[in-house]
Automatic annotation (TrEMBL):
Origin superkingdom: Eukaryota
Segments passing through the bilayer: 131-149, 200-220, 235-257, 278-297, 345-366, 375-393, 419-441, 453-472, 492-511, 523-545, 557-579
Signal sequence extent: 1-23
PANTHER family (UniProt xref): FI21449P1 (PTHR11161:SF72), O-ACYLTRANSFERASE (PTHR11161)
Acyltransferase domain mapped to chain residues: 193-576
Keyword tags: Membrane, Signal, Transmembrane, Transmembrane helix
Name of this chain's protein: Acyltransferase 3 domain-containing protein
Keyword Plastid belongs to the record: no
Length: 601
């Protein structure tokens, strides 16, 4: 009797759950819908993107229960937010027509509708600019082809080889491919080869993170498939790791710069403001040619004619018209995030800011013979305390958690401006790089005896602490604890990686060191800068040829991530060969350099 009762109860629960699931799917409006874009354009109408919020009029309905459930679940999107692309007659108000359209669609649902956002496609007339751009590109490619042909001929004609000007070779595809494949024999480079390999895997993580973000803001067939991706633990923690990934670039950049400055100081016996100016000038011109090209391409509206890129085009083209020069000269840290020309380039600006501040800190320390570890430690403490107070007083969240709804709202979120991209947010990570660079410089000639205990300690530091930080970052905190965690999690994440790099420079790391120093990562590391710059053109181009919803299933994530990563590196390789390496040659030819014996060119 008891067993029968249990079976009946189990059956009732199963039926209830099944009924609830079916009702949920049936009663919830479709998350994304879009009208035909080509038909709209052929009729000379206006195509608009809308965001609506629905609220059940009766809190006792099943739809209210479903919406309430997924608003509580952090691994789900807010299904009360609906997205529509609607064709608008030019004679009507977009807001009123859009709201009337959604109300007609939801007539059978007992809900009220609020309009959250409207963006209609803007048409920019850049005919002269586009003509100039494509003429410039065509002329430049002719120069590259001619330089490559001349270089090839000189390789097979010893008499002609001496007549080939070095600047001509600078534009040769052959020459610039050889530079990518070339093995750098610099002693510091050889000791720190693992850093170059790690950069490659870190940029892969960045591309993956942006791939997910691009799919989240795309109009796809089934949003629940994306939610299922988050249920996979590997995917879940990779997303949180991606939120920290840029910190690794900051600590690497400062570590290498500190070693460079201390090397100059040891060689010259001084480090002056003049040297600081030369290094900053070279830093800016190092990125200039490629940045100019990608900004010109963005401003030209290369993704015109696609409904899926309307919001991106509206925002980026206007930003690039108003503030392109701030991106080119890496000064966008003074702008609100949503006003940056290509928002993803915020990293370059912040890194240049840290680069400049590191030079000034090192100049003061070396000028007055201060204790570098002590002063840097004090700065780390002050910065950490300042950021803790900043979070606590302003009641900000401790970090940008890459959960579904937070990612969907990313571009409108205050969190990305306040606790992710502001100069204060990651400065501690950069300052840690000063300490690591100092310890590397002072110990790089020493020999360390590697034993089993040291290897175990290295692995525990390199692997365990970052995993612990990832786990802590998935939790929620309040009050003082939230402020403290917001200030310490980023440096705690990057510090063990920095120690790991130091360990690998002395022979620790085993199979990890072998992997990072292997040939393929070393080759790819030579194109990471251009890969970072150009991968935005790849990951956000998914819907550029689509006139309907993007078909998406759970397993499509693997395809899109692989596709975006491979194509980004291919595009990065092309930009490195065509623009970055020729630019580096011109930089060394015409921009002052720090030379030995206190001479500058």
């Amino acid at each position: 009797m008891e067993n029968t009762a249990r079976r009946i109860l189990s059956a009732l629960i199963l039926i209830s759950l099944l009924h609830f699931s079916l009702c949920s799917n049936r009663n919830l409006p479709q998350h994304y819908k879009m009208q035909n874009y080509k038909t709209c354009m052929s009729n000379n109408n206006t195509y608009c993107v809308f965001e609506f919020k629905i609220t059940p009029e009766n809190n006792n309905t099943e739809i209210w229960a479903v919406l309430r459930e997924n608003q509580i679940n952090p691994l789900q999107f807010d299904h009360s937010i609906l997205h529509r692309m609607i064709c608008m007659p030019n004679s009507v108000s977009p807001e009123s027509h859009g709201k009337q359209t959604i109300q007609n669609e939801l007539a059978d649902f007992n809900v009220t509708v609020d309009l959250l956002e409207t963006q209609c496609e803007q048409h920019f007339n850049f005919s002269y600019f586009k003509t100039f751009l494509w003429l410039f590109v065509a002329t430049y490619l002719i120069i590259v082809v001619r330089a490559t042909a001349t270089h090839y001929e000189s390789m097979h004609d010893s008499k002609r080889a001496c007549k080939v000007f070095s600047w001509y070779k600078a534009f040769s595809v052959i020459e610039n491919c050889q530079k990518i494949l070339m093995n750098n024999t610099n002693k510091d480079f050889q000791r720190l080869k693992a850093i170059q390999g790690f950069r490659v895997f870190n940029i892969i993580l960045v591309i993956f993170w942006h791939t997910v973000f691009s799919l989240i803001i795309m109009y796809i067939t089934d949003i629940k498939e994306l939610e299922q991706n988050y249920e996979n633990p590997l995917f879940y923690y990779l997303m949180f790791a991606g939120a920290f990934s840029v910190q690794i670039f900051f600590v690497i950049s400062t570590l290498l710069l500190t070693n460079q400055v201390l090397t100059i100081y040891k060689r010259e016996g001084k480090f002056t403001l003049h040297y600081c100016g030369i290094l900053i000038l070279n830093r800016i011109f190092r990125f200039l040619p490629t940045l100019i090209i990608v900004i010109m391409l963005t401003k030209s509206g290369i993704y015109d004619g696609s409904p899926h890129t309307i919001k991106l085009r509206n925002e980026n083209i206007l930003n690039c018209m108003n503030s392109w020069w701030l991106t080119v000269f890496q000064l966008t840290f003074i702008l609100p995030f949503h006003q940056i020309c290509v928002p993803g380039y915020w990293y370059l600006s912040i890194d240049t800011f840290y680069y400049t501040m590191t030079l000034l800190i090192l100049f003061i320390i070396l000028k007055f013979n201060m204790n570098l570890p002590k002063i840097t430690g004090i700065l780390i403490g002050i910065t950490t305390l300042s950021f803790t107070s900043y979070i606590y007083i302003r009641k900000y969240s401790f970090m940008l958690q890459p959960l579904p709804e937070q990612m969907r709202q990313l571009m409108k979120s205050m969190a990305i401006q306040n606790i992710y991209t502001a100069p204060l947010c990651s400065w501690t990570s950069s300052q840690i790089g000063i300490l690591l660079g100092y310890f590397y410089f002072n110990n790089k000639e020493k020999k360390i005896t590697i034993n089993k205990k040291l290897q175990i300690l290295w692995w525990l530091t390199f692997i365990t602490l970052p995993l612990l930080v990832l786990k802590l970052s998935t939790k929620n905190y309040t009050g003082v604890m939230e402020a403290i965690m917001g200030a310490i999690l980023k440096p705690l994440f990057v510090f063990p990686f920095g120690l790991g790099f130091l360990g690998m420079s002395f022979g620790l790391g085993g199979v990890m060191k072998t992997l990072l120093e292997s040939r393929i990562p070393q080759i790819l590391s030579n194109v990471t800068y251009c890969t970072y710059l150009t991968h935005f053109f790849v990951v956000f181009a998914k819907g550029v040829f689509l006139n309907k919803l993007l078909s998406y299933k759970v397993h499509h994530m693997i395809f899109w991530a692989t596709f975006d990563i491979c194509l980004s590196f291919i595009l990065g390789f092309l930009f490195t060969v065509l623009f970055e390496n020729p630019g580096l040659y011109l930089q060394k030819k015409f921009i002052p350099q720090i030379k030995s014996n206190n001479k500058t060119n």
